[in-house]
Every structure is written in structure tokens, then in C-alpha cells.
Amino acid sequence: MSRERISCDLCVIGAGAAGLVSASGAAMLGRKVVLFEKGRMGGDCLNYGCVPSKALLTAAHTAHTVRTAGRLGVKTAGPEIDFPAVRRHIERAIAAIHPNDSQERFEGMGVKVIREHARFVDDRTVHSDGYTVRAKRFVIATGTRARIPPVEGIEHVPYLTNETIWDVEALPAHLLILGGGPIGCELGQAFARLGSRVTIVEAKRLLGRMDPDHVETVRAALLEDGVEIVEGEFAAKAEKTASGIALTLETGRRIEASHLLAAIGRVAITDGLGLEAAGIAADESGIHCDDRLRTANRRVYAAGDIAGKGQLTHLAGWHGSVIVRNLYFGLPTKQSSAAIPAAVYTDPPLAMVGMTEDQARSTRGERVRTASWSFQDNDRAIAEGRTEGGVKIVTDKDGTLLGASAVGERADDLVQMLSLPVQKRAKIRDLTEPVAPYPTRGEIWKRAAGSYFEPVVFGRFAKMWASLLSRFH
């Protein structure tokens, strides 16, 4: 087969967040860049993940707001759900954002975009059907795909994933979700609010990586929306039925539903990349790489989900930035040098940055301290009638910030305020200094930090000192 030969500075495989940031950064520095993408530009986030799910969640949240407006003295008729119109809203959101990730935009930057599958044939060469590319450096950013549930008979059942659920034309009568992680909880609540019956089956604990105290607030919201939650039970068998599917749990319980969504995790997409030819090791969690994202082949970097460092779009973007800094600015940057926040976009949302209390205690034991504050004591939350949730700050014994968690209205935005302090290993006393506008939810961090010092600031010794000083004023 005759292939066009190209030599370049950087060859990127995968046009998701990590690949696009790597490619655009190098191209804007005048480097010759080749970008391979056999699927849709924008990757999972734009086409199957963040964008469509948040568009769906917005529609569901609006329906819920209409349905519950009476609590604020606003009387309305119940919402009427036009599911095809909801789907059109999702499609419009994707279409509006697509130009940012489009082939045309990147070609305008000078990137050579090849819409073909690429595979390594040696340590510095990749082939596709029409091209042979030899590069100084490579970035593999092929991402992950939904994990197939290890359930007997699953291959004979028409299950959905985060990719195929957007093809469902009618609102599911009963959506059964395998997996109680962020995807399962977000989509479960959204479909419940749009009118589906929803059951979530989680083998371990709902949102197991988040702060357990704050997860309880999300759990209560899901239950209030009518979502059935089954925890600590494994699925044993899946069957196709006349009306949809049936799932039998290990306890013997049988659950019938119209649709099954598999949301039990992700596996790395390494199929056909020819990694062995390039001297690169990988497993289902991702490509093996160091904290600067370098693989065993020092010409090749891994970025985004495929790097096995976490599965977040903004983390993938950060990975692209780390690679550009290392390659073209001479800045030895590690991917772990930033405190990466994570959020679950349920209503209320749940967000965190750094360590949870449990994670901190597992490594630091009795040195860990915490400070919490509830939205029940936040005036803005009271005025809005949304007082569920609160915040928790996690510190070392000396007050060094280790992490923070928030649950409640706009928690996903609030957690950003703690990202930089956690990254810079600031002290909790630093959170007491800024003056927040009143009334805002952001005041809650200062109130939580203030509570940390109450035993000292308003303790016995402080009262004695104040009494002494008052004699001279």
C-alpha cells in the first residue's frame, strides 16, 4: 500500500481534550503537528459525556424546578416532558460547542488532521491507511470506553452505555443502571425527573470515592426524586425479555426494566495501537507512564484518561498543558502539581478537591483535623430555600490544607475557591482572611475555617486576656 510520508515535531493520537490541548499548544508555538482521530473530533466529553449529560441535566433540573415551584409560593401546572425536544436541546448544545474542537479550527492553526486509525510500527513511526508519520515526539490520548459488566448473559442483552444512551428516541419507562458512580447518579436523577422509573444497582457504596457524609445528601435527593438505590449487591445474570431486560442479583432478586445502562467504570482504549512495537506497556487501566506523563519510550507521552491518572476532562486538558510545558518551555512539570477538583453534577451537586477525610486519615492517622459548616447556617441558602448540605475542610495537624468537600446548591462552583489554596498547601487560617460579599454561599468557607479556631479565639485563655485588656480601655 502506498502511503504519504510525513515528518513532524509532534504526532498526537486522539482528538479529545488532552490531544487537542497538546496539538494546539504545539502548533501555536510554530511546531509541525499531525493529529490522528478516527472518530468524532472532541472525543468523549463533547459527544457522549460532559456536554450531552449536562444538557440533559439542565432539562431535568428545569422540570424539577417547575414541579417544586410551589414551595416558594409560585403556583404552576406540572411540567409536560417532550423528550424529542429534550434530545434536540442536547444536539444543539453539542453543535454549538463543536466548532471549538472541529477539524477546520485545528487545520486553521496549522495542524495536519488525519481522520484515520493510527498504530505504531516502531519506536518513532506510526502508520494509518493513507499515511506514514515519523515524529520527534508522540502523545497518545485515545481515552477510555465503558467497561462491559462481568455479568452472565450480558452479551445477549441490548444494554446501553454513555455513548449509546443518547440514541434512545423515547423516554425509558424503567431505566436500570448498573453502577452508582457519577455517571449512574447523574443520569439516574435526570431520567427520574423527566419521568422514567429508575433503579441504580451498585455493588459497593454509592459514590464511593467521595466524602461519605456528603454522599448522604445526594442519596437523600435521589430517593426524594423516586430513584431506587440497591447497594452492596452484585448482578449475577442478565436476560432479554419481551418488554426489555431482566437482571438477577446474587441475592436472587430479579429486577425487570425496559432499558439497562452499564455505568460500572471505564477501560483504556489501546486496541490496535501497536504499543509493543513502540516499547510501551499498558493494561486495562491505561498506559504506564511517570508523573511527567512519559512512557517507557521517552519519545512517547500518554495524556488524559489513557494515562491512568484519573478520568476527568479538565484533568485531560491539564495533561496536555503539562506535556507542552515539558516539551517546549523546558519546565519540568508534573501532572500531580495541580490540585484537580472533581464534581458530581447531581442536584444538589457534590464536589471535592484534594483528599477526603477518609483518604487523609488512611495516610496521616490522628494528625488529621476537620472543620465543617452547614448551609442551614448560610443566609443565602436560607433565602433560596435550599439549605441542604454543607462543606468540610480537611487539614494536617499544623493546619495545612489537605482537601475540601462541598455538597449543596452550586457546590461544583464553590469548590473552585479551594483548588488554589489546596494546591499551594496554604494554611486554614488563610481562609479566614478574605471578606466575602454578603449574602453569598461562598461565605461558608470562611465560616468553616473560623469554626476551626473557635476553641482558641473564644476559649478560656482568650476570655481572660480580653478581660485584662478591657481594664485599660
From TrEMBL:
Alphabetical keyword list: Disulfide bond, FAD, Flavoprotein, NAD, NADP, Nucleotide-binding, Oxidoreductase, Redox-active center
Organism: Marinicauda algicola
Disulfide bond residue pairs: 45-50
Superkingdom of the source species: Bacteria
Full protein name: Dihydrolipoamide dehydrogenase
Domain FAD/NAD(P)-binding, residue spans: 9-320
Alphabetical list of Pfam families matching this protein: Pyr_redox_2, Pyr_redox_dim
GO molecular function list: flavin adenine dinucleotide binding; NAD(P)H dehydrogenase (quinone) activity; oxidoreductase activity, acting on a sulfur group of donors, NAD(P) as acceptor
Annotated InterPro entries: FAD/NAD-bd_sf (IPR036188), FAD/NAD-binding_dom (IPR023753), FAD/NAD-linked_Rdtase_dimer_sf (IPR016156), Pyr_nuc-diS_OxRdtase (IPR001100), Pyr_nucl-diS_OxRdtase_dimer (IPR004099), Pyr_OxRdtase_I_AS (IPR012999)
